[in-house]
Amino acid sequence: MTYLQLASRGVLGFVMALAVVGKLSGRRPWRDFQASLGGFGWMPRPWWPAVAALVVLAEATVVGLVLHPATATAGLLFGGLLVLAVSVAVLGARRAGREVRCHCFGGDAGPIGKAHLARNVVLLLVCGTGAASSAVTTATPGPATGGLLLGLAGVAAVALSYPAELSFVIAPPARRS
């Protein structure tokens, strides 16, 4: 396991875990996520609960796969395919003039736009880099370095998952007088 692979596993695993927890955090986030699937335009309403469950199952599977070194590369590749499939579906819906709302992490992050697709490109790069680095045998991170890498991966995952919320930490809104 390389440093790059560990960092990639951490980022992808944390992002997917945040997505699963966000969607399953209550009845409303779960219903809203299901309803957001209607924005794609091709999916009949009776399919929404089953497709939503499959998406969450796929995300949870990625988390499980990237946790174990023996299945980490498969998890990175599967995670990349999942992110790519969602991105292609969103691009298709946008081309058709449809609005798909982002309920990826439980709350309503508004219509999926360039920022969401840019996040997906970053995640694809993370998946590809991590998977490719598994073919290279270099030094294995020790416990302290591994812990630091995973901590930084957690911070990166939160930044990728909740950019609008973090913007208030970095630049709070101006006070109104």
UniProtKB/TrEMBL annotation:
Keywords, sorted A to Z: Membrane, Transmembrane, Transmembrane helix
The GO biological-process annotations, alphabetized, read as: methylamine metabolic process
Membrane-spanning regions, if any?
Answer: 6-26, 47-67, 73-93, 121-142, 148-171
The protein's matches in InterPro entries, at most eight in alphabetical order, are given as: Methylamine_util_MauE
**Methylamine utilisation protein MauE domain boundaries:** 1-131
Instruction: Name one cellular component (GO) term.
Output: membrane
Cellular location of this protein?
Membrane
Could you name the domain of life of the organism this protein comes from? Answer: Bacteria
Topology term for the membrane: Multi-pass membrane protein
Q: What is this protein called?
A: Methylamine utilisation protein MauE domain-containing protein
